[in-house]
Structures are given as structure tokens and as C-alpha cells.
Amino acid sequence: MTFAHHIVWDWNGTLLHDIDAVIIATNASFAELGLAPITLETYRELYVVPVPKFYERLMGRLPTEEEWLVMDETFHRHYWAAAADVGLAEGARELLRDWQRDGLTQSLLSLAPHDRLVPLVRSHGIEGHFLRVDGRTGPSHTSKAGHLVRHLQALDATGVSPDRTVLIGDAVDDALAAAHVGARAVLYTGGSHSRRSLESAGVPVVDSLAEAVLAARELAE
């Protein structure tokens, strides 16, 4: 069998242009512990997955279990209140359509809760472009690698092969997850990380999703 080129798309900060909602929710969670708000630039410079490590960079220590639960609940409450009004990244809808039209396959994997992710993807009218849509089903303080393993295993019967797969995301963790399964990665600067921090991953870094798809085509050759 000749494997089709396949893209695994990240959702938050990649297909969904939600960085403003993320900053609002992050600062709301900080306020719960009396921490000062941060700017987008600071967020992008310090953000890391798993998220408690991000808080450690800001607080100088890991949050306690009680603090983590408060911050996590606050973040999600504020984030999901704002997410309903968030739009897709520039060109995302057309890029998904064109990739599918060319006979290539794609799926979506997010660390957003699965039961919240699926209705939101559906509300944007793009669900039909994906072979599979998976969100997180376990704890929120995890990285993407294990989720990507399960995602690709579920796609195995469709002919998707890790060595012909490119993950497009906005975080260094996306590149680490791709390397874990033997896939490639392209990182996009429109989300959670600064260009400088993304470049530390040693994979292509781009400023638009159109550039990301072009790079994915080249990597999958």
C-alpha cells in the first residue's frame, strides 16, 4: 500500500485562533492566587507543556495540588466562556478543504477536553475534513506524546503511517510528540510560543498556516 500524506492538526493556537482567550483565562487563573497579570509576549516566551511547569516558571515553584486545581478550574471556566466567540486562524478553512480535495488525509488532535472539543469543531463546520477528531480524556497536566500514540493507532486501519505524517502545531510539545512516534512536525508562530522558543525544537517554524501546509507537503515527499 502507498500511504497517503497525512496531517495531524493541533487545535488551540493552530486551527483555532484563540490566543487572546487563553491570555484572558490565564490571567484570571493567576488572579485567584494573587499573581500579577502577564502579557502575550511573556506568555509566549515562558509557556511550556505540561502546564504546571509553565506556572513554575512564573511562580518560581511548582503550584501545590490545591493551587493547581484552583488555577485549572478557573482557567477552563474563563476560557470556555470566551471560546464560543473565537474564530479559525486565517486561511484555515480553505487549507483544510484543499488538502482533502487533493486526495490527502488529515485528522485533529488536541489537549482540550474531548467532550468540549468535538462540539466546538462541529460548530465551525469543518468536522467533515478529518478522519478523526480526538481531544484529551485524562488529566489536564499531560503532554501530547501519549495522546498522539493512541491517535495514530486508531488511524492505523485507514492507511495512515507515522513516517508519512506531519503534525502542525504551535508548541514545542507538538514537535516532541511527533518525534516520539516517528512523524515530522511544523510549528506555527500564531499560538502559544515565541518564534525563538519554537526554533529550539529544531523543526520548520512558519508564520502562517499556508506556509505550514507547504512545509508539510515538502516534508512528506
Detailed description of the structure:
The chain has 221 residues and is an alpha/beta fold. It contains 10 helices and 6 strands; from the N terminus they run βαααααβαβαβαβαβα. It has a 6-stranded parallel β-sheet, with helices on both faces. β2 (105-113), α6 (114-123) and β3 (133-136) form a beta-alpha-beta unit. The protein is globular and about 50 Å long. The model has no long low-confidence stretch (mean pLDDT 92).
In short, what is this structure?
The protein is α/β, with parallel strands linked by helices and 221 residues long. The chain is built from ten helices and six strands, in the order βαααααβαβαβαβαβα. The chain has a six-stranded parallel sheet with strand order 3-2-1-4-5-6, sandwiched between helices.
Provide the gyration radius in Å: 17 Å
> Main sheet, how many strands, which sense, barrel?
6 strands, parallel
Based on secondary structure, the structural category is alpha/beta
H and E order: EHHHHHEHEHEHEHEH
Helix content: 40-55%
Q: Quick check: average pLDDT? A: 92
Strand content: 5-15%
Span between N and C termini?
A: 16 Å
- The stretches of 5 or more residues where confidence is low (pLDDT under 50) are none
Would you count the extended β strands for me? 6
Shape type? globular
Number of helical segments with 4 or more residues:
10
Which sequence of strands runs across the widest sheet? 3-2-1-4-5-6
